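User: Could you check the structure of this?
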Amino acid sequence: MWYQEYGIDGDVVLSSRVRLARNIQGIPFPRRTNAEQQEKVLSLCKDAMLKNDNDWSKGISYIDLSLMEDYEKQAIAEKHIISPQMMENNRKRGILLSDDNKISILLNEEDHIRIQVMEAGFALEQCFQEANRVDDWMEQTVDYAFDEQIGYLTCCPTNAGTGMRASVMVHLPALTMSGTINRVIDSLNQLGVTVRGIFGEGSKATGHIYQISNQLTLGAAEEDIIEKFKQIITEVIAKEREMRQRLYQADKYRLEDRLMRSYGILRHAVILTSGEAMKCLSDVRLALDLGLITDLKPEVLNAVTYEILPANIMKEHNLANPADRDLKRAEIVRERMSE
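Assistant: Sure, the predicted structure tokens are below.
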């Protein structure tokens, strides 16, 4: 799975994503569709991706969300495959998902089609190229709603034009601990990007993990949007790395003590809440990046971050009781820390 990997600039950028919003000509936006129209969207898109002969789509399967329990939908939302909004709506909806979870095509969410590609690390260009390839293939058989002046027509006007959102998931513990994160966020907003918590709009930056995405989709080419966004994120990476060194040099032993205490908790705790685990994982990730811990692979931290989230524990271990999940979470983390 992509989230088990460690990519370029992975000490700061945990993952990259490019999403393309598309709608089908002649069918109302999802919020105004009836059951028959919703079924038509599903049928057209499944036929486009699953019935045509191509090598890369052989690893893609269809998931009917109406057949899933709430906790199963929550589990894939925790892995950023679907949005909380898609979990909650009652339309006929589904996902075309690749075996490695890198490609996900959301059907009947806010738009008829949302093509997503995710990669570990700072890999926006790779995500865009793959998303573009899926988009081109889909467009061979699906007639998109498109205006010569505006571009791709989307349910939300802020997505019109290219219909593209590029985003990165970044770990910014030093900027957060130093108290400069709000100033950085204000600066980013002025540059046309938005900063949210780990699970997008309305969520908190759990474990010092933030989601940064572009706001501009109209009046510019996709390649130009990607390039400008890359330059902005490169500056964020530099600021975070600089602040890590400044914090370490300013109070080396106090910072070491905090980070290594968190490492001890993860290695020995019997009970771990989701919040405490994410906080400690953030500290251990920083300790690893500073070279204080050398016997732990960053890929392990990336994988365990998703394995210990509530719905994923419930799905994998059939544990509905929060207290039981806290026990299992601690067990999972202890085992992972000893790998």
